[in-house]
Amino acid sequence: PAPPAAGAGLKAGDVVTAVDGNTISSGDDLTRAIDSHKPGDTITLKYRRGGSEHTVELKLATRPS
To answer: In this model, does residue 2 exceed pLDDT 60?
Structure first.
C-alpha cells in the first residue's frame, strides 16, 4: 500500500507549511507536530506546491521501524 502522505496526494517537493493550524518552519517542527499525535489520528496539513497553497486531511499510520 502507498504511504499515507502519497495516498493524500502529497508529492516530493511539496512544502508543509502548517499542521492542524500550527506553522511549520523546519523539518524538526514537522516531526514534533506529527509525533504529538498517535497512529490512527487525522491531522490537517497545509502545504505549498509551486505557487499554490493546498490543504489535506491525513490519517496517520504506524511509522515503519
So the answer is: no
The residues near 64 (Cβ < 8 Å, ≥ 6 apart) are none
Question: Is residue 51 classed exposed, middle or buried when 0-12, 13-18 and 19+ CB atoms within 10 A define those classes?
Answer: exposed
β-partners of residue 45 are 19, 56
Q: Tell me if residue 63 falls in helix, strand or coil.
A: coil
Q: What is the CA radius of gyration of the chain?
A: 11
CA distances (Å), origin 56, targets 12, 46, 62: 15, 7, 19
pLDDT at residue 52 in the model: 96
Query: What is the reported pLDDT for 10?
Result: 86
Paired residues of 59 in beta bridges: 42
